[in-house]
Amino acid sequence: MDQVQLGGSHLHVSRICLGTMTWGEQNTEADAHSQLDYAVERGINFIDTAEMYPAPSRAETQGTSERHLGSWLKKTGRRDKMVIATKAAGPNASVTWVRGGRARNFDAANLRAAVETSLRRLQIEHIDLYQLHWPSRNVPVFGNNVFLPKRERASVPIEDTLSALGDLIKEGKIGAIGISNESNWGVSEFIKQSELKGLPRIATIQNLYNLSARGFETSLLDETCYRDNVSLLAYSPLAFGQLTGKYLDNPKAHGRLSLFPPTWSPRYLRPATVAAAARYAQLAREHGLTPTQLALAWCYSRWFVAATIIGATSLEQLQHNIDAYSIRLPLDLIKQIDQIHATITNPGQ
Ligand SMILES: NC(=O)c1ccc[n+]([C@@H]2O[C@H](COP(=O)([O-])OP(=O)(O)OC[C@H]3O[C@@H](n4cnc5c(N)ncnc54)[C@H](OP(=O)(O)O)[C@@H]3O)[C@@H](O)[C@H]2O)c1
């Protein structure tokens, strides 16, 4: 497995990162450990989790994904060989069980509490990459793409957040830092504040990126991140499973999109997203590929994707998804993908 350096940080990670979002909801601890064993066998050293996982987040399960990763790190003694990334949840009035919902934010006290609790759940002393799960300020996220000034809310100034993270870095609790679900303005402001005030610099951005959601390119975040040396960690490369094609013949096929209420994932169920998934699935089959292979091989090969964060509920899925790393898509196939994108642009964004 190839490795890549994350931004200007000291971290070198596999170009596939293993996501953990299902662990504790759709996957047991034993499943999580088998996935980790298998991923390591295939050269993956990079694992992404979050304090609020598993998803969808519930009071009864919150923190379990980190715990399952922690018990594996302890059991195997492989901590030093792995790059562990986790995330602090931003403000969200409806997720009250993670440090108080709306009161939760990226100030010094909250970030310290979040880091220390994650360290305990992970049973480690240092988090390699610490990320802000979504912005403190008013920014449309998770499929809501309209910026509305009337939704402005009090937020923690970015320089204060960077300063708080800087203290945690000095104490050795965290290493590199990253942002997630961020915009062009957000990336530029984080970089500007770190340069102006001599504060730590972000190394990564973890944003949605897949065949049906190419906003990272169309909003020119690719240019911003290239110039500012911020590495993209692409999440949901299969659009929550929609791009595997399994829901096309049978919308009730077993999986995340049929198991949970559609209110969790409306962007992956929009008619235009389903229509795009059908076009990509047909294209894949015309080229002797599965829809999953097409979606992942394409994402793995994009020049601005440093690492793709994959997710799986079964070992069989995980194997198929890692195997897709060795597939090289011919230029004419990439051009046909771009033609579909031009006619159905970012339906799942
Ligand atoms: N920063 C953020 O806000 C954010 C948001 C989302 C995700 N993430 C990160 O990114 C990781 C990956 O995201 P994701 O899980 O949404 O990725 P995804 O690739 O879009 O979806 C993964 C899901 O698709 C299904 N699947 C995967 N491979 C398959 C296959 N070969 N055949 C059929 N179905 C398959 C599985 O669910 P079923 O078996 O249930 O169908 C699997 O859990 C997460 O674990 C998390 O670490 C971050």
From TrEMBL:
In its UniProt record, a GO molecular function of this protein is: oxidoreductase activity
NADP-dependent oxidoreductase domain sequence ranges: 15-340
CDD domains the UniProt entry points to: AKR_Tas-like
What does UniProt give as the signal peptide span?
A: none
| Record InterPro entries | AKR_Detox_Biosynth, NAD(P)_OxRdtase_dom_sf, NADP_OxRdtase_dom
Q: Which UniProt keywords apply?
A: Oxidoreductase
Coiled-coil spans in chain? none
Q: Record keywords: Membrane included? A: no
List the Gene3D superfamilies: NADP-dependent oxidoreductase domain
Fetch the Pfam families from UniProt.
Aldo_ket_red
Q: What is this protein called?
A: Aldo/keto reductase
What organism is listed for this UniProt entry?
Duganella guangzhouensis
